[in-house]
Amino acid sequence: MSEIPNDMYYTRTHEWVRLEDDGTVTVGISDHAQELLGDIVFVELPEVDSEYAAEDACCVVESVKAASDIYMPITGEVVDTNQALVEEPDLINSSPYDDGWIFKIRPADDEDIGQLMDASTYEAEIADE
Amino acid sequence: MLIFEHTSPGRKNIAQSPVVESEINDIPAELRRKTSAPLPELSELQVVRHYTSLSQKNFSIDTHFYPLGSCTMKYNPRACNSLAMLPGFLSRHPLAPEKFSQGFMSCMYELQEMLCEVTGMSGFSLTPMAGAQGEFAGVAMMRAYHDANNDTERKEILVPDAAHGTNPATATMCGYTVKEIPTLANGDVDIDALKQSVGPQTAGLMLTNPSTLGVFERNIEEIARTIHEAGGLLYYDGANLNAILGKIRPGDMGFDVIHSNLHKTFSTPHGGGGPGSGAIGVSKRLKPFMPLPVVAKENDNYRWLTEDDCPQSIGRLSAFMGNAGVLLRAYVYMRLLGKEGMQRVGEFATLNANYMMAQLKNKGFEIAIPDRRASHEFIVTLKKQAKELNVTAMDFAKRLLDLGYHAPTTYFPLLIPECLLIEPTETESREALDGFIDALLQIQSESENDSAFVKGAPYTMPVKRLDEVRAAKQLDLSWVNQSS
Predict the structure, then answer these.
(1) Contact, B412 vs B419, CB < 8 A?
(2) Range of the structural domain that residue B408 is part of
């Protein structure tokens, strides 16, 4: 069974979203998603300062099985990206919720994050996959 | 082992060596090499053994059942090969004048006509060198059509999420943005989502039918109507044409442009990168935009159409007209089969796939879309085996190699977890299909009794389990001669 921490939100497309103390939001992919993808070999990070609407494809992770888009969970502006993934994309496999974070955004609307799934809803969502 | 590694200084292949050293007079002294080239030095017998042993490592249709879904790895009749290699065809220079090429050109003209007939399109251009180039040409024609109508605000191509990766790649190459349309659990395109996505920004929809999920798109007429009413065009990806060959025609379904992988459906050994052919067919309104050259027939004479005849053509895709040898094989294949034979291709490809699907279902394998009839291919999902036995689709695929079967397509389409996409094709016997089913059952029982054994496969191949992460991240194909 994959790990689904309680202190974050989730999307149908398997991104996790964590609200930080400074009001920014960190985004990565769930443990379940990295299991499905298999060994990740390349991450194309979004550009800092670029703005995306919710559900826009904003970056790509490539595994030995497939290349998959990562979607913007909520509308906002990218403020930071995890440069460690350039050399070690497999951090997403070994530590999906910590060292394997992908990018941080400043949300256009602080309320948006509440619209996403909580851990138990996400768990039910992926139960029959 | 590379042939360079067999080298032994001074050893010669006498039969191939020049008898008389020719004088080199016209190359300036400073441009001549001072040392001899670092070529391998071997005897004739060593060379023969080296390449024969490499050829024996091949996994091919000539040696093994090869049910690679979405690729149509079927047997290509030897007659197609030998007739395409007749001296008159082989020695024809691509720049030979038309009056000396009438025989070849008549074959190409008839091939264009036969392809129009079997797909229901009004024109065909044979020039694309491969499926990807055919797709590119197809979408470039869609763009040229909209541009010619001053309809330049159409920036979006719709692609179902079950599509081949080449479809969104092609749309992007042609300057469009891609909008993904979801697929329903029954395999059909989500028509409500399609209706919400379509609009004045829609340049067209790219669709594979039957889809990569191995089922026929039942709402194709409604889809065509929706796209056409919005002013968009409908593109047919011909990857799965084998399933419907001679039975129904993309043109009748409302498609405006199609590419057909002649190397898949029409008899050229493929895999390993070519040569291929991605011939493209068009509806009447796209005909002026076809890439050149195209063969025309005038008073029993054949001639190449040029830019003067077709000023709106999207242009040329290669120096000459596609891969002539592949086109000739397709021509011979279609002539040998005839119209009735073409129908049997579609029927037997479908029958074989449905036989295997039913057998595997009866024996406990989970079918991805169990309620639908398969087209020419179907999907087994091994997610239960992955969860309960920790044996994945990849493990099954590797173990199949030990048992003498090329693995089916794995992990595609991406919508189905732990999947095997199996396409037996019409050319396999029932015994071959049963053998493959038995092999899957054997692996299932091995997985239940000793999953570690299955996870260690293959055991009989020249290379064992590969480090796929290293292969993707640190691929190094260079070889350096240490001794020089």
Answers:
(1) yes
(2) 345-471
